[in-house]
Amino acid sequence: MISAPDVVAFTREEELEDELCSEPPLPEEYSVPLFPFASHGVNPWAKVASSKFTRDFILISEFSEQVGPQPLLTIPDDAKVSGTFDLNYFSLRIMSVDYQASFVGHPPGSAYPKLNFVEDSKVVLGDSKEGAFAYVHHLTLYDLEARGFVRPFCMAYISADEHKIMQQFQELSAEFSKASECLKTGNRKAFANELEKKLKDLDYTRTVLHNETEIQKKANDKGYYTTQAIEKANELASVEKSIIEHQDLLKQIRSYPYRKLKGSDFHPYEPECALDQANTGCDQDLTTSDLAEPGETQLYAHVPSYTPKLIKAKSAKCFDKKLKTLEELCDIYFFTQTLDQLHQIERTFRGDVCYLLTDQISRALLKQQRVTNFLFEDVSFLDEKPPEKQYRGCQGLSQDAVDRKCLEESSTPKVVISLGSYKSSVECVPIKMEQEIEDSQEPKMTESVTFEHQENLDYLDADIKGSISSGESIEVLGTEKSASGLTKSESQASLPVSPSPQVGRSKVGSRRTVSEDSIEVLSTCPSESLIPEDFKASYPSAINEEPYVDDEEGGLRFTPKLNPDNADEQEDISKQENLVQVDSACCIGKESPNFLEPLPDLGQKPCDEDGVVRIPPQPYRQVEPGLRGSFGGFPSHDGISGGLLPYELDSRYLTGSREVSKNSLDECSDSTSYISSAASTCSDRTPSPAHLACQAAERHKKKAGQNALRFIRQYPFAHPAIYSLLSGRTLIVLGEEEAIVKKLVTALSIFVPNCGIYAKPVKHWVTSPLHVVDFQKWKLIGLQRTVSPAGVNVLHALSRYSRYVSILDADSKTLRCPLYKGTLVSRLADHRTQIKRGSTYYMHVQSILTQLCSKAFLFTFCHHLHLPISEREPEESVVNRRMNFLKLQLGLANEDIKIVQYLAELLKLQYIQEPGQGVNPLLRFDYVPSFLYKI
Amino acid sequence: KSSVQTIGEEQIQNPYTELLVLKGHQDIVRFLVQIDDCRYEIAFQITGEKLFELHGHTHKITAIALFSSSDVSEEKNHLILTASADRTVIVWDCTSGRQVQKVSCFHSTVKCLTVLQRLDVWLSGGSDLCVWNRKLDLLCKTSHLTDAGISALVELPKNCVAAAVGRELIIFRLVASNDESEGWNVLEVKRLVDHQDNILSLVSVNDLTFVTGSHVGELIVWDALDWTKQASECNFWDSSIHPDVQPEIKLSQSPNETSVQHLTSDEECVFAAVGKGIYVYNLQMKRVIACQRTAHDSSVLHIERLPNRQLISCSEDGSVRIWELREKQQLPAEPVPTGFFSMWGFGRANKQANQAAKKMQENTPVYFLELVGDLIGHSSAVQMFLYFGELGLATCSADHLIILWKDGEHESRLRSLTLFQKLAQNGDLQLKF
Where are the WD repeats (chain B) (predicted)? Predict the structure, then answer.
């Protein structure tokens, strides 16, 4: 609404419209040579890209342990998009940036292979030769058969426009994080299933082996064992070890911290969850007997179980087997979800960056106009949260809809709000003690996290990025998770570390511990919570055990803050310690491949002088720092709520420095991170439909704008018709042909003010006689004209209620409606307008309507215009004042006053509406004569 | 034949510029009862918020009455009495919306209910007349009167009630019984058989007078104390009053068109809804001073006198019209043609042709009824309406709807008031500037 056509010189339009093409060609000598790239739909402001691809796309690649980096798929899945661009080469490039080499496997000194819930890394990478710039999102997926259980993947958003990547970094990061989270959730689920199957296999194998041994024992009573028997015993032992290891893995993967409600309404993937649980719980007496609580056991008892098979204790070597595809790695449901999200990302970031930025700004501004924005805007998708705003929206807490949800969540006892509450939460039992360490030093942690946030931002500001030695400019943007030493965390992860050094350690180090840990710091992963709780997140066994203090653990000097859970943790670990045994035979302890080793450093050198100075991403930030303290008392109603604070916001915008935004981010980062995670959860409920709705709305706007343009050119009486709509008088488009009527209705719908935050009061096609209720509900109606007796009834009803409606006869091209003598509509709908494109015209309309809205706002909220200043003041003087204000201050003439008055009534109704109930639509009307207009 | 007067689209004096449709009923809405100053209809507030839905009757409701608490000190405890064709009377509690008690010992449908607030009793009229107290004890009853039963009841001075039974008007008197403190006996005092046809409406004008109207268009003014006939208007279609009416038209009139559907009055006049028309009968002059013979397209069902010399009528044709009683000085404004629809030429074009019914007589009425506005919203017969002064007007109709008509300006001001109250409440006023 805010972006007028002169602000954005370029409006996104995929196809040229026919008007443009049908213009008579200029004589040769006057014609300016066309912009060479015009045929691509590129605007002249766009940088002439030397890229080999036509438009942005998303690439998913994998670092396959068998064949190395390989592209898996592109979005859009169209060969034309990537063109001659060498995907293989680029995959190699982007995969080689992967710094993390997430440590999985046998840490030295640890008995078990450890799964690390590693953070994704987010990197910007450029290749000026190729003309390609990419946001690269690395992630690892678990695969039981893979080396070290991990499969490194990356998703890259590749664009020819470097600025786009840089400026949209936050948005891209947020969006890709969500997609990645979805993928990883599916993966964890699949991995858990895999593990359970494997466990069953192992158990079966053990039973078989055991029986064989028994038989052998019985068969030979000589008192000594044959080599065969020893072999069997060894095999049995290794199987048993394998079982323990796998159980441990399962436990780890299941204990992945979910900070979500268990409530079913919070599950976007509900059916899948059920299925999954069914799959998970199968063989209760062995795999889950000591893990799951009895209730669960009963729950799953009836589930048909997987038939275990006899397997070799040693697993096959890596190169012998076929690696799973991405679909197999993740649950198919999650995979398609991810693909949907990625498609959405592609769609969202399509087009020129200036368009994206303008769109973001206008949307952010629009969101602030909470009192008026419902009038002409589709607020439903604003409330849904536009995709690119999600992350920052959460941080800024601008969405009170979401906030309310968050509040609801936070008020329910079960929600894991912050790290502190992990202690008491049964659902997220910490499995490592580092987490507890962190717990106990929470205040300190808060500090350090804040500090590091700032640091990170400083990195961004200083443009110091890690680089790849490739001659071209390749930046690695500071990624929060990568900014620390790996070696440290390795040791920490594996060994029980006493807290005192932790405390004394550098802040970075302590933070590292946390994130490297299996418990994540909440603030680092905002989209974490979209994971449904489809694994059993809790391990009651860890709780139910007796508190037990090991001697070794005594050295830890856990302070009184430790609670029983804590002790359990320690015990757990100590148990693990005690169970140190033989080397594992399968790939568990495999070292990571050599060629990966040098890479991890890359990301860890954010301070490396690269020499390449880049503009850091400076996306528009929605800063609402004042709101942080206010969620407690957040008003629970819509409308102008306390969350609005437009004045404060405005000032923030004006000062709008990054300093401010930084601060606010920092402030919010940890203590409000639960909000952000919860928020993303809320908004992620229905990711694709909302986005699709956005798209549809976009298309609708364009089409409506085009039709409206045609309408005002075609019909000389467009003005009174539009006036009718703006002043709340129902306009009926009467016609025989549905298509024509619907087209007109679509065109006119952009002028219809909404009565509430719900859908527009537009009814495209009605065939039955209208009633007064319809005029109360609909402000624009397409009505069928038939010659049948029923049609007569329809017309009779029309004539009966003629005082409430204006009638546009599409067949005879007449309009019956009150006279309009104002000036406003002529600006809105000038039939000599030079605007040619539908979307441009739509923006024009929106900008004028915005002006109108602000006038209505002013009018509505000026106290003295409606109420007497003193008690003795007569009503007439108020009326006079009101009319003067409308005429002189707002410069409205004649019927324009009625438009503003009508809008003001709508604003009032919306504002005074009680939260629980919807707006009771009113029918306001005037007793004014109608006139008949003809072409 | 004269056609209905129309007013067109420009209605300067019509205050109702806002309407709110209340949907809730599943069938014809027949009655509206004002319960107290801020609560207006059985189930709706002025905001149209549904407070209660009262379910209990299995057949249509035939009568409804409000029984306010007589005790001033007590908290307001209004009762609603509803009589139904299922031969029951249910007493509802207004504040809770609950059913207090159900009386089902009737032999026939109770057709009318009257509350004698003064005596703290209520009467039900069916085939007999019963007297009840607040606790729903049957105090006394008359013997069986007729099968048709009592169609209307009106309270008269000196503990009397007039009951319309067929074409008879029976006066009953309530006499305190000697043996009991709270007991009443009901005595038939007088039978008046002056009407030629069934008495349809019965209204008390003041303490001294009451008026009855019958199916054939007789209107009789009675003395409320000695029950004598003070005056009567036998035939509203009398050509002496309407000299321009052709005799053949008079012959063709069906009784339906002359029945007195409803009566209302102020101190001076009785307003009668007769057929499609409205007649103003002056009690002093004892004659019809103004009339609108075809005020509506079909029967007028309810009329009411407003304090500001206006009159509202509603009709089977689904419209509500606002009239003003004016002295005959200037001709009323010419109706605005509505040519557009006739242009389309659909079959049943409006009767609202250009010539309006300006057939006023030069000699007799010095007053005339001028149409100042009409309210069109209902698609079926408007059964009744309730006038709430400046707060608006509620109409109920056979199309299952209740429409609240309000003054748009007034409502807008109220909304502004609410808005600023809410702003202050939210503290948004302080935050600004």
Answer: 54-102, 293-333
Q: Where do we find the tokens 């035979």?
A: A585
Dmax (CA) for chain B in angstroms is 78
Token pair 């008392």 is found at A633
Count Cβ atoms within 10 A of the Cβ of residue B421 and give its class: 0-12 exposed, 13-18 middle, 19 or more buried: exposed
Q: Chain A: residue nearest B336 by CA? A: A929
Among candidates A773, A795, A930 on the partner chain, residue whose Cβ is nearest the Cβ of B9: A930
CATH architecture of B59-193: 7 Propeller (2.130)
Q: Is the pLDDT of residue B85 over 60?
A: yes
DSSP B59-95: S-EEEEEEE--S-SSSPP--EEEEEETTTEEEEEETT
Taking residues A728-754, report their average pLDDT.
89
Tell me the pLDDT tens digit for each residue of B3-19: 677 777 778 888 888 88
* Structure tokens belonging to residue B205: 């004008």
What are the pLDDT digits (tens) for A3-41? 444 433 344 444 444 444 455 566 666 665 555 554 555
Q: Which of A480-484, A821-825, B266-270 has the highest mean pLDDT?
A: A821-825
Select from A642, A816, A867 the Cβ nearest to the Cβ of B340. A816
- Between the ranges A293-297, A589-593, A675-679, A860-864, where is the mean pLDDT highest? A860-864
- Higher pLDDT, residue A921 or A531: A921
Q: Closest approach of chain B CAs to the CA of A373, in angstroms?
A: 18
Nearest Cα neighbor of A348 from A679, A2, A694 is A694
How far is residue A249's CA from residue A233's CA, in Å, rounded to a whole number?
A: 24
Check pLDDT > 80 for residue A876.
yes
How much is the average pLDDT of B74-94?
Answer: 80
Nearest by Cα to B54 from B28, B101, B102, B92 = B92
Nearest CA in chain B to A805: B9
Show me where the domains of chain B are located.
11-29+255-330+364-413, 59-193
Tell me what ipTM this predicted complex has: 0.80
Cβ-Cβ contacts under 8 Å, B11 against chain A: 927
**In this complex, is the C-beta atom of A925 within 8 Å of any C-beta atom belonging to chain B?**
yes
Residue A932 at interface with chain B, using a CB cutoff of 8 Å: yes
User: Angle at the Cα of A809 (from A805 to A810), degrees rounded to 5?
Assistant: 135
**B96: distance to nearest CA of chain A, Å?**
21
Non-local (6+) Cβ contacts of A457 within 8 A are A658, A662, A665
Asked whether the domain spanning B59-193 has the same topology as the one spanning B11-29+255-330+364-413, the reply is yes
Tokens of A269: 């993937």
d(CA B121, CA B134): 6
Query: How many whole angstroms separate alpha carbon A433 and alpha carbon A435?
Result: 5
Q: Which of A378, A428, A90 is nearest to A261 (CA)?
A: A428
| 3-class secondary structure, B292 | strand
- Confidence label for A43 from pLDDT (cuts 50, 70 and 90): low
d(CA A83, CA B116): 93
Domain B11-29+255-330+364-413 belongs to what topology?
A: Methylamine Dehydrogenase; Chain H (2.130.10)
Residue A258 pLDDT greater than 70, yes or no: no
**Residue with the larger pLDDT of the pair A170 and B148:** A170
Work out whether the CA dihedral A90, A92, A94, A97 comes out positive or negative.
Answer: negative
Cβ contact A802–B341 (<8 Å): yes
A 604-663 residues inside an 8 A Cβ radius of B: 635, 640-642, 644-645, 647
pLDDT of residue A641: 37
The one-letter code for the residue type at A851 is Q
Summarised one tens digit per residue, pLDDT across range A410-421 is 333 333 333 333
DSSP code string of A150-188: EEEEEEEEEES-HHHHHHTHHHHHHHHHHHHHHHHHHHH
